[in-house]
Amino acid sequence: MFVVEYKDEILVIDGGLKFPEEDMLGIDLVIPDFTYLTDNLSKVQAIVLTHGHEDHIGALPFVLKQVNKPVYGTKLTLGLLEGKLREHGILNSVTLNTVQAISTIKIGKYFTVEFFKVNHSIPDAVGMAITTPAGTIIHTGDFKIDQTPVDGQTTDFSRISEISKRGVLALLADSTNAERPGFTMSEKVVGGTIDEIFRLAKNRIILATFASNVHRIQQVFDSAFKYDRKVCVNGRSMVNVVNIASELGYLNIAKGVLIDLEDIGKYNPEEVVLITTGSQGEPMSALTRMANSDHRKVEIIPGDTVVIAASPIPGNEKLVSKTINNLFKRGADVIYESVSGIHVSGHASKEELKMMINIVKPKYLVPIHGEYKHCIHLAKIGESMGIEKDNIFLPDIGDVIEFSKDKARINGSVQAGYILVDGLGVGDVGNIVLRDRKQLSLDGILVVVVTLQKGTNKIMAGPDIVSRGFVYVRESEELIEESKQVVTKSLDKCRDKNIKEWSQLKIAIRDQLGKSLYEKTRRRPMILPIIMEV
Amino acid sequence: MFVVEYKDEILVIDGGLKFPEEDMLGIDLVIPDFTYLTDNLSKVQAIVLTHGHEDHIGALPFVLKQVNKPVYGTKLTLGLLEGKLREHGILNSVTLNTVQAISTIKIGKYFTVEFFKVNHSIPDAVGMAITTPAGTIIHTGDFKIDQTPVDGQTTDFSRISEISKRGVLALLADSTNAERPGFTMSEKVVGGTIDEIFRLAKNRIILATFASNVHRIQQVFDSAFKYDRKVCVNGRSMVNVVNIASELGYLNIAKGVLIDLEDIGKYNPEEVVLITTGSQGEPMSALTRMANSDHRKVEIIPGDTVVIAASPIPGNEKLVSKTINNLFKRGADVIYESVSGIHVSGHASKEELKMMINIVKPKYLVPIHGEYKHCIHLAKIGESMGIEKDNIFLPDIGDVIEFSKDKARINGSVQAGYILVDGLGVGDVGNIVLRDRKQLSLDGILVVVVTLQKGTNKIMAGPDIVSRGFVYVRESEELIEESKQVVTKSLDKCRDKNIKEWSQLKIAIRDQLGKSLYEKTRRRPMILPIIMEV
């Protein structure tokens, strides 16, 4: 999420989510901390969107509940957003405004937004030029330059050139692939690979890709039509996107090609292709279930060709490998990453970024969207092209880049960062809860319960010890017995010393028992003493 | 670990460990289940080793405690093993026999083992031909074919050819890189890249790589000598390997080059190189500490060149990225994977595997060492070279391949699999404990304690509820209060129905409270009811 502010007006660009890091145990989603928007609610004029990926629109249901301002986006982007807003029950209370990839809109007193078409791994992606009284900012969105795009429309360089001729203050450019030399390959390349797979496959084809990659899905439909196969769509998000994209005209499905999952049994293996979710090895996804043989309706048959038309997103490598291994074990022939041309990126490589910088000729460069290392690489590209080092900004989350007449600088920061979503809870899980989950996950917990007599602290019942996630119960009986003695001794000692405060008793139990367990097991389970009184 | 058995004799090859999978929460190491060896102790003649990597010798301290049989390995392999046995306090009770890379040894009545040199990412790696009355088996160990190895010794194809002329029953070959076309690059390539980095670096160089890659470390020492830099070795395993390798003559360190970490301050930045652990972004390693600015002695200085001469092992990608991002943030110039020639694999690619198969000309092929997908690729290579499909085996862990006069087949399996090591516990953490840790890690725990009157089940104290890893305590007060009421109501209902069994009461509490919490939070914390009696 980016915020452009001029005097009393704020324009918001995108509102994405990220998926939890490995150490965010039990967390479902991570959304931006948008306190700055709720604190400045009256300033916010609108939210403008670049494209419909989760990391650009996924947090909007949460944002719009508190910051209900008009949203502007292209047709498919809004189509995908609508589904989310419906699920959250706020669709009818939000104003959605459809724009064209060549629209120019005026927002508030100060902002003019000129959209321009960019190529990306989802249709209807746009970048935008935001003209303010202080100058024009160009935000590329996520982009690449595809000279042979599936829908025939390339990144709109003539419009970008036209806008840039007026002079551009700052370029905010997608740095995701700034490490990669050369040019990113065209989506058409994947189409060619898919077509070749269709030509050769003798039995069923099962193809997994990102649900939002509508162009790739289109190419699968095209090959299916060409080789006379029926297409069956599988997996919740895949069904959802195929429905929205074909309703809105972004997916062209020949009549009679699409069949129901229930009907695949009616066709011979060589007459069918399944398009499915699960290209990231997600444990609950359709392809993973097939690989584990617990899909309700599809069983992998030896001779199936399974195509994973995607690269693993960083962090998913092992899940994807597991799925591939399991598919091979069930006798499928699996085509994946190791075959070139089965996936291409949606982000610009070095030479494309240079081209963008050359056309825009910005005074200031702000690499965005990548990890820090990617931003650094784009900064280096910028430097190599003559942008002064001082004119390139690598802001942290929340940093404010202030542009004044003759200079720009990082001028402090506003509240920003992550909000963790766990179930229905938004922001109720923080560092303490995560630290506890971490400790619980490593060595489990021992609960020590003891009932004391009021006043005397004489033990009336217990100590009882219950453990979970620590050791096998049947193997730990002796250990538990010894632990009870340790607790009794700690309490006796406290009584001898006339220590009566429960907090003190609990510390004594925790310390003594923790030490004793570590000596015996080299583990540090959480110890939770509970004292009752009668 | 592989077992070769003939009549009443067993020969064991290697005994490695693996690092825990993501779902093995809190586990330190995974070793093979070697019950088959303890069950057949008198049959076991010896353990022969291919090389000194953890995944080939790491489980031996555990194995040798119960299966104390003579070990055969090359000098460096045994040098590395010795350190482990010393830590476990069993060095003096184990017989270690040093072999040469061209040794032939007789083991028991039936086995003749002919070692042969192979190239790998650690010196002194060997493969072996094991001749039994039933024929000869060739086990490649981990290998590649390096035509320009750092130590001048290539994989010993003349010896392999000689042995193979007598006819080879089965080839067990390293499949790790069977997906990769062409040839794996020479380790010398990395030397060239490192040398170029030394030529250009204007300040300190900090280089991280695998501690066991002694050849790569040698090349760093060579470049340091050439460009007049002192070398400082950093990180426990790096110091350990450098000591062992230089003592045993595998690492040639020019006099005066090595300096102490304490003394780096005495030199100018351009006069120093640090070799360090942490190439995998391991949280406690030296490089990660530097990146996080919590290394006790080394602070990253803007202008440092940090070189990560390694690829991330699958599963470590995000840790490595995090380290790189943090190093960039501290102003270092970081050179890593995205630069070609900074790492090469130690495993044979497709063309090398073909060469091995062509020289050995085995009757049977058994792909080993890789994931299943890698084994499948090697199987395909074998098929493409004319080995009959029925003569290629892809056994599961524990499967027995039985070779008889004219055929081979998978003939059942023996007990095998994983044993989890957690602290001092070997095998005391199993599925139930892991399942509990998983649940605890996702949504935490609620402990419900209540003291009942003997006989009447009247509530005498409580219910008290303590939670960890569930929600912030200050935000959950209301929820906890409501939960207590739910518990009291469940217990009242049980008393009304005259249900007195504690197990029943606990089920009632767990069900009612679980339902209530899920409705309110969409989370499923572990609920642990504890009943005391007075």
UniProtKB/TrEMBL annotation, chains A, B:
Output the PROSITE patterns linked to this UniProt entry.
UPF0036
* Pfam families registered for this protein in UniProt: Lactamase_B_2, RMMBL, RNase_J_b_CASP, RNase_J_C
Detail which positions bind Ca(2+): 26, 28, 51, 422
Residue ranges of domain Metallo-beta-lactamase in the record: 1-194
CDD domains registered for this protein in UniProt: RNaseJ_MBL-fold
Q: How is this protein annotated for GO cellular component?
A: cytoplasm
Q: Where's it mainly located?
A: cytoplasm
Q: Which UniProt keywords apply?
A: Calcium, Cytoplasm, Endonuclease, Exonuclease, Hydrolase, Metal-binding, Nuclease, RNA-binding, rRNA processing, Zinc
Assembly and partners? Homodimer, may be a subunit of the RNA degradosome.
NCBIfam families linked to this entry = MG423 (TIGR00649)
Protein's recorded name: Ribonuclease J
Q: Which organism is it from?
A: Alkalicella caledoniensis
Q: Which gene encodes it?
A: rnj
